[in-house]
Amino acid sequence: MDVGLENKRVLITAGAAGIGLATARAFSASGAQVAVCDIDAVALESAAAAEPGLLCLRADVSDPSEVDQVFEGVLGTFGGLDVLVNNAGIAGPTGPIEDCEPDAWRQTIAVNLDGTYLCCRRAVPAMRQEGSGCIVNLSSTAGLHGYPLRTPYAAAKWGIVGLTKSLAMEAGPYGVRVNAICPGSVSGPRMDGVIAAEAKARSVPEGRVRDQYLRQTSLRCFVDAEEIADLILFLASPRGAKISGQALAMDGHTESLSQVDLNDGP
Q1: What pLDDT digit, counting tens, does each position of 182-217 carry?
Q2: Which of 117, 147, 153, 213 is catalytic?
Q3: Deepest in the core among 33, 80, 129, 137, taking most CB within 10 A?
Q4: Residue 258 pLDDT grade (very low, low, confident, very high; cuts 50, 70, 90)
Q5: Where are the domains of the chain?
């Protein structure tokens, strides 16, 4: 199906694996020009080999100078930017707030929230000059409900929703749309790591934690990266032209992220 994205110029952060790579592949298949940046050089090499048409750039999005280099490379190569997908993020520490060290807190905020800000800061002027553009920020259901034992992550993801809604107001008069997607639990290695860390922090089997995550959603499901990529493409396409300032959950309907006692049985 033609979604009207041919020759659109796209930048995806953390685009060498997971949701980012699935999104890069979907945009490429739609005829877009796609650049990805990632902190993982090995993952970038693998992505470049698997998807030869990608412009691959290594960067830590929490570093302003490295973000500047990415945008100089993308704008210099593509001559502009139509779509920015702020996908970069880390899980951060798992545990009660009193065990969260300041350095771990700051790193989680720096990558998840500061990185989104730094990329938006560079993208908006380029899009404003074009008179159009689409920014999609990856938040989380943790940015809608809160997340016990994951306070730095939840704080950053709530911040992304606030940034999104504010920037949609600021940039909208110039034709720039800004939305956030709030995924639930996404199948893959990253979620496996989150479950393992939470099981360790709570001294319970991993299977019990995984079952709890499933039971927190009405549809009793995890989300696939490709499903999130499809929503991002819709928002970036002409079909999403009137959608802005929204925090859209894709999560099987999360009922609650509140902690339950996993030792009390099912």
Answers
A1: 998 887 787 888 888 888 888 889 888 888 888 888
A2: 153
A3: 137
A4: low
A5: 9-185+224-260
